[in-house]
What does this fold into?
Amino acid sequence: MITISEAISTIKKAENDAKKLLEDANQGSSEIIEKANEESISIMEKTKEDANERYRQIIFESEGKAKNEANRILRETEKEVSNIKAQTEDKIDEAATVITNNIL
It folds into this structure.
């Protein structure tokens, strides 16, 4: 009987050890999953921050390019207006000369 009793005790101890191993494995896997989730969230937040920073940088660069282009167009337009004004003044002087010569 002692051997049967020892066998039963050994089996129960083995069952308890197996349960403890399963609990430890489940807890370990839960911890790994939780840590992986936290790391994933951290990576997504960092990626989002990087994307937003790149977005702001692109907008800033685009605004700078647009301002430069607007200034270039303004300079060209001012130059064209100045040329047209000079041509108009020359035509006015010519017209005044013609009128003066015809009247006199």
Remarks:
- Residues 1-104 form one domain.
- The chain has one domain: 1-104.
